[in-house]
Specification:
Elements: H1 2-14, E1 22-29, E2 31-32, E3 36-39, E4 42-44, H2 46-57, E5 60-67, H3 69-78, E6 83-88, E7 97-99, E8 105-114, E9 131-135, H4 142-145, E10 151-155, H5 158-166, E11 172-176, H6 177-186, E12 193-209, H7 210-213, H8 216-234, H9 236-242
Parallel strand pairs: 1-5, 1-6, 9-10, 9-11
Antiparallel strand pairs: 2-3, 3-4, 6-12, 7-12, 8-11, 8-12
Length: 245
């Protein structure tokens, strides 16, 4: 009996119960290629690959939950996830997210139109009187987000925007340039669209849910930032991005 108790004690000491890595569950987008999208029922994309490498270096197990953008944002706000794999930094989102100081990627937000439409955009005032497609709850930068008086059609993803512009249901669509070009190629519509205006280049950060992670989220944001800077200095991030171009 004594030998058995000794053996049990030794097994507990040598093989602790909690030997698994820390786990984070981030909400990701279903259709924001090449950054985050679904392929063969799996979340893939350059953002996913970058975060997998970050978590590997920090000995963190990364799990992702693919969702439409509006629901993904809500999970972070309510604390139903660890946060958002990437998100634009806005004052409103500071209420429920800790942001990394280092961006995951930089996206160029643009306005697209059908080729041959004759539409010329030199500023937001030129959008008045035109039907403009946007993605629900997306931030296009502070200047556009605060601009009033536009006729907007709200969709749930950039592919939907491309399809309704192509069908001439709306005049213009706003979104990130790389995802637009990825969708054009996928749908074999590359020659039917053009960028008519560049809104801004905007940085996308990882956001940790304040409700989901508590104060630990702030610490994790700092750790993620440090590792991402290291990866960029090593050229690892650029190698990952190049795989999707």
């Amino acid at each position: 009996m004594k030998r058995m108790l000794t053996a049990i004690l030794m097994s507990v000491l040598l093989f602790p119960i909690n030997v698994s890595a820390e786990q984070l569950v981030f909400s990701v987008l279903e259709d924001f290629a090449p950054y985050q999208y679904m392929e063969n029922e799996k979340s893939v994309g350059c953002d996913v690959d970058i975060m997998n490498e970050v978590c590997k270096r920090l000995n963190i197990e990364l799990k992702v939950k693919p969702l439409p953008w509006k629901r993904a944002l809500k999970t972070a706000e309510n604390g139903d996830s660890s946060g958002l794999l990437t998100v634009l930094h806005t004052a409103e989102r500071e209420n429920f997210l800790y942001f990394t100081s280092e961006p995951v990627h930089i996206q160029k937000n643009v306005i697209i139109a059908r080729k041959g439409s004759g539409i010329t955009i030199k500023g937001f005032d030129d959008l008045k009187g035109k039907e403009v497609g946007v993605v629900a709850n997306f931030s296009y930068g502070p200047e556009f987000d605060k601009y009033e008086g536009l006729k907007k059609t709200v969709c749930y993803g950039q592919e939907e925007l491309v399809r309704i512009v192509d069908k001439e249901r709306i005049d213009l669509a706003m979104g990130a340039e790389d995802p637009f070009r990825f969708i054009w190629k996928k749908l074999n519509l590359k020659e039917r669209f053009e960028v008519v205006y560049v809104i801004a280049e905007i940085q996308a950060y990882t956001g940790f849910s304040k409700k989901g992670c508590g104060e630990k989220g702030k610490v994790m944001a700092d750790k993620f930032s440090e590792v991402m800077r290291q990866m960029k200095a090593e050229g690892v991030t650029q190698q990952i991005m190049d795989k999707y171009r």
